[in-house]
Amino acid sequence: MADDGNTIFTLPHGASGFSTRAAGPLPVTDTRAFRRALFTAARAAGGGAGEVERQTYPLSFHTAAVVLREDEHVVLCHAHLPWIAFATERRNWYTGQFGDPPPWASAFAEAGFDVLGREHLLTPLAEVDTSSLSRAEWHNVRTYGVDTLGGVLFNAWA
Fold this sequence. Notes:
Layout: E1 9-10, H1 31-45, E2 48-49, E3 61-68, E4 71-78, E5 83-87, E6 98-99, H2 106-110, E7 114-115, H3 118-121, E8 128-129, H4 135-143, H5 149-153
Parallel strand pairs: 1-8, 5-7
Antiparallel strand pairs: 2-3, 3-4, 4-5, 5-6
């Protein structure tokens, strides 16, 4: 869908984690900045930082956690764009398993990341400017039945 003025989000190059030769290489998120923000967030939460699981093909994101006494908050960092999301469980791809950002998520925003909320991630693709997606990306969207913004951003399309 092109941006007709009613869309709430425009997908930039790299959003799906896939690129075409013509589009050029994907940008790369600074994992050191992510790790620093993770430790800052963990301190603010009164917990500890779990190990960062770096993105490997076909994942489009890094995974980490902030560990509290009785709880673990799964933190997702997009591998190509400075976006942070929270999930209810560790998975290889996400559709609707997103959580709301906790109060200490501001540590990521202060480090230059955009923190995406659950409601935003569950936005239907019909309300997103998807004009930058290639035919190959659309093939994956259809093949994997992805119908939300979060599904495009945090995926494991092979």
